Amino acid sequence: MSDPLVVSNIIGDVLDPFRRSISFQVLYNNRLMVTGSDLRPSAVLNRPKIEIGSSDLRVFHTLILVDPDAPSPSNPNQREYLHWMVTDIPGSTDVSFGREVVLYERPEPRSGIHRMVFVLYRQLGRATVFHPEIRNNFNCRSFAHQYHLDVVAATYFNCQRESGSGGRRFRPEN
Predict the structure, then answer these.
(1) How far apart are CA 138 and CA 79, in angstroms?
(2) How far apart are CA 100 and CA 86, in angstroms?
(3) Is 146 helix (H, G, I), strand (E, B) or coil?
(4) For residue 9, what are the CA distances in angstroms to 5, 44, 94, 132?
(5) Residue 71: cis peptide before it, omega within 30 degrees of 0
(6) What's the pTM?
(7) Per-residue b/e over 13-51, b at no fewer than 16 CB within 10 Å?
(8) Which residues lie across from 41 on neighbouring strands?
(9) Average pLDDT for runs of 10 along the chain of length 174
(10) What pLDDT, on the 0 to 100 scale, is given for residue 169?
(11) CB atoms within 10 A of CB 10
């Protein structure tokens, strides 16, 4: 079975290959988000509940939500737009136990279908990750390198404007 993160080019565009070592769940409006699902902006108005499956409370995590397709999939010159960041989340808890360092900004794509990517990192320790300077052109790889973070899990959903229709279109080059 193919990995949805590879098929959707999350691995490649946003992350390098990694080994999933813990589980985590994303719930919008108390509904479990399935990897690769299609959600409209009205369904993601409020920040989701994120449950982390690690069994060690002494291990801390950072969660981010980025849009690698901002402002549009055909011209992602703001790649990766940072929508949310929570640090210092203890294992086997949820994000409410962490420190929200970048407030949740709901996804509102104006054109095309955007991949909204949640990445969960293992931190070196508590209070070792800090607020980034920008939301535009955030870079998950550089961020992980700067703070010595390991990717432990990731998932994504597709989002397009409320009145949008259709799927991701791949056109051969002329």
Answers:
(1) 7
(2) 4
(3) helix
(4) 6, 22, 27, 24
(5) yes
(6) 0.91
(7) ebbeebeeebebebebeeeebeeebebbeebbeebbebe
(8) none
(9) 90 96 93 95 95 83 97 94 96 92 95 97 94 94 97 97 60 36
(10) 40
(11) 23
